[in-house]
Amino acid sequence: MGVVCHFGERRLIVIGTRGWIKTEKEIREFAKRSPDILNKGAYLNLMNQLNRIAKHSKGISTNKSLPQYYNHVDRFCRFLADNYNLKNLANIQNKHLVAYVIERQSEGKSASTVKNDLAAIRYFHDQLPKTRYRISDNKTLSEKYPEFSLEKRSFGGVNRRPTEFEYQGLLNIAHNSKNPEIANIIFLAREQGLRIHEGVRLDRTDAEKAIREGFLTVKGKGGLIRQVPLRNQTITVLQDAMNQVSRGHKLFVRDGEKAHQVIQRVQDFVRNNRQKVWDPNNTRPRGVEITMHSFRHAYAKEEYDRLMKENGMSEKQARFEVSKLIGHSREDVTRIYLAD
């Protein structure tokens, strides 16, 4: 007789000792109906690898700890697929763990949840017969990467904001590159607080509706829908982007391209050009580099200050309003973006 267990989005029927492993059909159906998974091909590939490992994994409870670890790594596979187009679990590196921790912290996940994420990733990484890189422990990661922190007092509280000089510098380089649409995607992250995949997903109909109504309707992670008031300059950017595409087409994804390819191109652009615009007057901790997520931090801080100054809100009220603008629903999450 099966035992019913609940893990994240799925209701699993555990049959025997490994019934919690998703079948290939289940993985495909989940990826198909999940708008949060953009690089579905890479995700399916990683999950098939995870399944092969999970079928023979040992050392922990197969009916409690192992299913939980499996679901932690399932979520990590989605992140690796969309953000790095990673195709082989054996190629996981320290940089992937650090970026994932930052991502989870920005979602407001507790230190204990993030530590469980890391424990699960390390467990399955250890089960691989051959790996390309060695994954460091948390202590070593915190020493090597200033932005990596699991301590409760400083949890997520790292200033990642670019300066205006750095922001404008990246926009200028992008505008003069062979992929000028990158500038618009960076702009939407900085001026509207959009996640990279939210900006890449926009099509001409979305832009027309936003200009008509005065706000962007954004479907974020977990299907959470929010409305972000348009800044004046955004109208011009959207109009220019609309003029480049036909109705029914994405603003920044060319014909024959996939959204995850554009995301990778934008991330690579920021990574390859951030040192060219580095501002010695930035207030980030030493070693903390600009990423696409940094622009959301700058937007959150700017909106927080504006809501208190212009609208007379209390700090708590302002944090709650900002959390809604950036696609969350708790005011304490805003503290992570403000580095409070």
Written overview of the protein:
- The structure is a single chain.
- By secondary structure, the protein is mostly helical.
- Helix content is 55%, strand content 6%.
- It contains 15 helices and 4 strands.
- The protein has helices at residues 24-33, 40-54, 65-84, 94-106, 111-127, 138-144, 164-175, 181-192, 196-201, 204-213, 232-242, 259-273, 292-311, 315-325, 331-338; strands at residues 3-7, 10-14, 215-219, 225-229.
- A two-stranded antiparallel sheet has the order 1-2. A two-stranded antiparallel sheet has the order 3-4.
- Helix 1 (24-33) packs antiparallel against helix 2 and helix 3 packs across helix 5 (111-127).
- The chain starts with a strand and ends with a helix.
Characteristic key phrases:
single chain, 340 residues, mainly alpha, two-stranded antiparallel ribbon, two-stranded antiparallel sheet, 4 strands, disordered N terminus
In percent, how helical is the residue content?
Answer: 55-70%
The end-to-end span amounts to 50 Å
The largest sheet has its strands arranged as 1-2
Low-confidence stretches: 1-16
Number of strands: 4
Strand content: 5-15%
Annotation field: number of helices: 15
Give a quick precis of the structure.
The chain is mostly helical. It contains 15 helices and 4 strands.
